[in-house]
Amino acid sequence: MKFLKLSVFSLLCFFANLASAQDLPKSHLKVEQNKLVNSKGEAVVLTGFGLGGWLMPEGYMLGLPKPYDSPRRIRNAVVDLTDQATADKFFTLYEANYVSEDDIKAIASWGFNSLRVPFNADRIMPRDKQGKSAPYYFDPSGLALLDNVVAWASKYQLYVILDMHAAPGGQSAHNIADSDGVARLWHEPEVYWPQTIALWETLARRYKDNPWMIGYDVLNEPMLPGTEELGGDKFEQHDNMPLRELYMQISKALRNIDQGKKILFLEGGFWAQNMKDLLPAWDANTVYAFHAYPAPTSIEQLPASVKEVMAADHPVWFGEGGENWNKLAWQDWLAFNRKFTTMMERDMVGWSWWTTKKFARATQPWQCHHPQGFSVITTYLANRGPKPSKEFASDVLLKMVENLATEQCRLLPEFVESIGGKLPK
Predict the structure, then answer these.
(1) Cα–Cα distance between 420 and 425 in angstroms, integer?
(2) C-alpha closest to that of 87 among 101, 72, 99
(3) Quick one: which of 144, 149, 54 has its CA closest to 101?
(4) Is the pLDDT of residue 12 over 60?
(5) Which of 83, 122, 138, 240 is deepest in the core (most CB within 10 A)?
(6) CB contact at 8 A, 265 and 216
(7) What's the CA gap between 310 and 169, in Å, rounded?
């Protein structure tokens, strides 16, 4: 009988594993003409979310005033208000609560199929631990966070696109590149291009055999030197040749590792809208990614250079959008969302909503709430009030990251349904 029980158990395990294996894609998604296809040759339109704010905190998502709008400035504020040990605890809890397995499971259950995972290079490749040349240091705890989300997405059958949201040195002078005010990726390429390539190589080796991790959003919203100072038509005058050269060097490094299995998502210059100098594609498995705020609701509203990419029969992907809503009444905004996502899906563009979770704002699935006393902290940071005591600030900030846990946040079903999600009844 003992043998019979073991045999039955073994058979159950075998069939469970067989069913699970049948659920897995047999190969990576790939580009075929102007669309993405799976192993059966079926077209796949990406619909999902960017996990913005998680490994790339932004001040507006947390309700912090400027200049506390980038990861390094947010950390400086927490250290100033408390101490280094409390700041370390704050960010450990922050990262644990911002994205959980249950969040990923929920996104899949609503009917979406993909995640864009933004990361700050500094979280994985700490700037204060790098020399001027290889070998470089990679933080195991940062890599483990990416491992977790890739594993969860694979479990719940969501495609993953890794997004270098802030590159070594900063690809722009802005907070969203976590820069020190200078876009050093362009001003010091001899230092920061090798670091950027090495980081992508590390990630490529780590996930090269996972078919749910379908590709690399190589560089978020690059701003080449002089772009913002140009007069007239910035799109016409913008020089993307340095961007093209960096993309080609990264592409070569990645293809030496993945042999072309992953998709290269290449964003245009000038806030991911200008594709000048990036055509024709030098790699067959390439998608051109663009961003727009507010989101377009017709092909005619797309940036001119994006329409040129489509006319050349290359696939495009709307990798980020969704914040601009305050000029519309709530119900009108919900209707706008559905018009935008329907158009993108109909025209095989696909989309990734920015983002899943923020404080106070209602422009994403989960709305988080500030703890009592938070206004005392923001008043101080805005130079409009006295500095609170270390004990007071510590209590408020740690309560704040507790409130990031999904069960503490408010789910917005109307919003989820407005972008095509179907919540379980």
Answers:
(1) 15
(2) 72
(3) 149
(4) no
(5) 122
(6) yes
(7) 32
- Taking the alpha carbons of 63, 66, 70, 74 in that order, is the dihedral positive or negative? negative
> Containing H/E element for 49?
strand 47-50
Averaged over 130-137, what is the pLDDT?
90
- The residue behind tokens 């007071």 is 392
Structure tokens at 424: 């379980």
358 closest CA partner among 412, 425, 305: 412
* Residue whose C-alpha is closest to residue 179's, from 122, 254, 249, 104: 122
Q: What angle do CA 330, 331, 334 make, to 5 degrees?
A: 90
Q: Which pLDDT does position 355 carry in this prediction?
A: 95
pLDDT band at 64 (very low <50, low <70, confident <90, very high): very high
Amino acid occupying residue 359: F
Predicted structure pTM score:
0.92
Residues contacting residue 86 through CB under 8 Å, at least 6 positions apart: 78, 394, 397, 398
Sign of CA dihedral 251, 127, 114, 174: negative
Which has the closest alpha carbon to 375: 61, 58, 65, 60?
65
pLDDT digits (tens, 9 = 90+) for 241-261: 999 999 999 999 999 999 999
- Does pLDDT of 262 surpass 70? yes
CB-based contacts of 186, cutoff 8 Å, min separation 6: 171, 224, 225, 242
CA distances from 101 to 42, 43, 97, 119, 181 (A): 28, 28, 10, 18, 35
When the pLDDT of each residue in the chain is averaged and rounded to a whole number, the result is 91
DSSP string computed for 270-301: HHHTB-TT--S-SSSSEEEEEE-SSPPSSGGG
Encode pLDDT of 75-114 as tens digits.
Answer: 999 999 999 999 999 999 999 999 999 999 999 999 999 9
| DSSP reduced 3-state for 390 | helix
Neighbour-count burial of 400, counting CB atoms closer than 10 A to its CB (0-12 exposed, 13-18 middle, 19+ buried): buried
CA distance 264 to 288: 8
Q: Compute the distance between CA of residue 142 and CA of residue 130 in angstroms, rounded to an integer.
A: 15
Specify whether the CB–CB gap between 253 and 300 falls below 8 A.
no
Q: In the prediction, which pLDDT does 62 show?
A: 97
pLDDT at 263 over 70: yes
